[in-house]
Amino acid sequence: MKHPILSICLLFLYFNVTICGNLFFQWRMTEGEKRQLEKETFELVKTNFDLYLKVIENYETRTEEDTEEEPVLQLSRYTHCQKCLTFAKGLKDIINKYKGFNDLLSNLKAVAAGLNIYDKDVIDGMADKYGPIMLGNFYTRYFSDYFFCEKVELCPPEKPINYSNSDNYAKKIIPQEERKSKEKPKKGGETLRMLQITDLHIDPYYKENTTTDCKKPICCRDPPSGEATAELSGKYGYEGKCDVPFELFNEFLEDASKRNIDMIIWTGDNAPHDSWKGEQSAVYEISKQLKDAVVNKFGKDFPVFYSLGNHEKYPNDDYRDNEQDLHDQMTEIFGSIFGNDEAAKADFKKGGYYSLKYKDTKLRFIALNCLVCDCFNFNLFNSTKQHAINMFRWLDNELKKAEENQEYVYILNHFPFNGGFTLTECAKRMQAIFDKYQYTIRGIFSGHTHLDDIEGISEYFNKDKIIMLNYIAPQFTTYSHKLPSYRIYTIDKETMQILDYEQIRFNLTKSNADGKPYWYSAYNATTFYKVDDMTEYDKILNCENMEGYVFNRFSGGKNAEKYKTSKGSQKNAKCTMTTNNFDEYFTCSNPKIGLDTHFLYVFTNFFIGPFENFDE
User: Fold this and answer.
1) Checking DSSP bridges between strand 466-472 and strand 485-492, what pairing results, if any?
2) Does residue 583 sit in helix, strand or coil?
3) Coil, strand or helix: which one is 197?
4) Residue 290 in contact with residue 271, Cβ under 8 Å?
5) Nearest 5°: phi and psi at 241?
6) C-alpha distance from residue 238 to each of 95, 257, 476 (Å)
7) Is the distance from CB of 427 to CB of 586 less than 8 angstroms?
8) pLDDT band at 350 (very low <50, low <70, confident <90, very high)
9) Strand stretches in 348-415, DSSP E
10) SS3 category, 229
11) Nearest Cα residue to 365 out of 501, 265, 473
């Protein structure tokens, strides 16, 4: 532990879980059970209070040779090891005796039902599908007697572990000499046009004239009740708590086919937000229908570069050590994008990532698997993170080959690297790799946030030097009160630098009213940022018009006018633009922590813990 407060907090969690459990469960316990639980808990705390004192003593007696991750082994530190093990076992016995882990989900369901926010089928579905993933993995790892006592440094390490350090990793791989600077694109040269679409979230059960106000994660599926007063869903969608119909995707393809594009990048999330009742087979079917529709409109040989989103796995984010069926099925669906490149196809089938050239040019696409570093993948509580380690080693090797072949690279990753979606451990190592190959990489393209953002990627040890941009594109779905959007980049064919992009939005109100689609150009990046091209990183990130930035950030939707003048919204946007991992973003934005996503990001980053043996 880096500081005694962390050990004390973990110890405090163990001491008080039964006390908190008493408060939480007492309305479902008899009076006799309550009194007995209080008595046993008090006795446990009283007889083991000296464990607190030993944790503090261990910290105060550290030597200069102690590292941040693991103290030098000293037998005097571990005099309380057996007592700690006895304590941990006694506490688990109490937990299991009074309701315990197996009854925890039913208690959580009862509490959620009392809040009356969601319907019973949603509560049951979410608890049954996600409860065992999160609570089961957490309990298995952190309620292991020895693991707990080792972590609070009252017992010696069960086995030597080489925990990686991101700074050491960066020092190891980043060259000391000055890197070659990217060429400034020449005006008037030959260009390419690349379309990006992300976060489609197509809902096959969407129906027109259905209720938009319901007690489920998404609406627009069921007819209104007799007392309903909310608006009804429209032909093409509803800007609110609804995903979009397949008909809107077909209209997008029709519009895009007229815009003279050369390629498509598709950065994941195909399925709807029906996380309480979805099925993996349904995710495959939706993905296949979307891919077939693209092929029917543009032809099977049209260049499409696809990366996995967290909604390609069901339950969402639940990526495990063996996901061969996911890899096999998605390779079957998107296999045609690889053409004759069997190596790229094999990589995708093995790990969910691949490297693929664009025709006979100097441009190479590297698509990553965001799920291996997913902050909400609770399986990582019990994982060695070997999938992520393998991907980073593979990525380094692919970028090295691209550098040697004088190719330029675009990185596709569904998650951006800040804001909490990507584990900080992963984001820091990714930044080190980007720094190492800063000349070769010409852009990063992400989605997921349902926000229109730009993230400036800096050198690892020099935060003032921006080396590339991560283009975070807004969503296609209307979910979370946004207008459907897609984007077209203009690329300098010689240097593969991004010259500009046009953000295209769907006028949902007019389209629903008239029964036919209306797409419009929302803004051009160079005009908005007042730059000649998108290589003017510093000027872009020092955006003069933050009101306009926030308005575009929310895709011109219902919340855009409300948030654009908010100083808090402008600060959060600025923090997204200027930070490269969650720790940096959290420090910058300084959010108020409640039982929200920020709490979960802090919780998962801490408890998933460091990577093992990453540098070997």
Assistant:
1) unpaired
2) helix
3) strand
4) no
5) -95, 55
6) 46, 24, 12
7) no
8) very high
9) 354-357, 363-367, 408-412
10) coil
11) 265
Share of the chain above pLDDT 90, in %: 58
What is the number of H-type helices and E-type strands within the chain?
A: 22, 12
Q: At what angle do helices 342-351 and 386-404 cross, to 10 degrees?
A: 160
Lookup: tokens for 152: 């609070």
The per-residue DSSP string of 56-108 comes to HHHHHT--TT--SS-PPP-GGGGTTHHHHHHHHHHHHHHHHHTTTGGGHHHHH
Calpha distance 221→242 (Å, rounded) = 9
Query: What is the spatial distance between Cα 610 and Cα 612, in angstroms, rounded to a whole number?
Result: 7
Helix axes 4-25, 50-60, angle to 10 degrees: 160
CA-nearest of 409, 400, 307 to 352 is 307
Q: Which two tokens stand for residue 281?
A: 């087979």
Contacts of 319 (CB under 8 A, 6+ apart): 313, 326, 371, 372, 374, 377, 379, 387
Q: Are the beta carbons of 514 and 526 closer than 8 angstroms?
A: no
Strand, helix or coil at 485?
A: strand
Helix ranges restricted to H, 504-566: 508-514, 525-529, 537-541, 546-553, 560-564
How many Cβ atoms sit within 10 Å of the Cβ of residue 501?
22
**Cα Rg of the chain, angstroms:** 26
d(C-alpha 204, C-alpha 290), whole Å: 11
AA identity, residue 314? Y
Among the listed residues 469, 366, 460, the one whose alpha carbon sits nearest the alpha carbon of residue 174:
460
For residue 506, report the phi and psi dihedrals to the nearest 5 degrees.
Answer: -105, 125
Q: Who contacts 459 (Cβ-Cβ below 8 Å, separation ≥6)?
A: 435, 438, 465, 467
d(CA 119, CA 533): 50
- H or E stretch covering 470: strand 466-472
- Per-residue pLDDT of 482-533, as tens digits, reads 999 999 999 999 999 999 999 999 999 999 999 999 999 999 999 999 999 9
Say what the pLDDT of residue 28 is. Answer: 56
Q: Residue 375: is it exposed, middle or buried by C-beta count within 10 angstroms (0-12/13-18/19+)?
A: buried
C-alpha 588/C-alpha 518 separation (Å) is 39
Paired tokens of 436: 């190492």
* C-alpha distance from residue 276 to each of 44, 115, 131, 270, 379 (Å): 39, 17, 11, 16, 19
Report the C-alpha gap between 51 and 38 in whole angstroms: 20
* Interatomic CA distance for residues 140 and 147, integer angstroms: 10
Length of the chain: 616
Q: Which helix (H) or strand (E) holds 154?
A: none
Give me the domains of the chain, ranges plus CATH numbers.
4-160 (no CATH), 171-206+243-608 (3.60.21.10)
**For residue 75, what are its two tokens?**
């037998």
Are the CB atoms for 312 and 330 separated by under 8 Å?
yes
Neighbours of 79 (CB within 10 A): 11
For residue 102, the tally of other CB atoms under 10 A from its CB is 8
Q: Which two tokens stand for residue 85?
A: 């093990």
Q: What's the pLDDT tens digit per position in 301-337?
A: 999 999 999 999 999 999 988 899 999 999 999 999 9
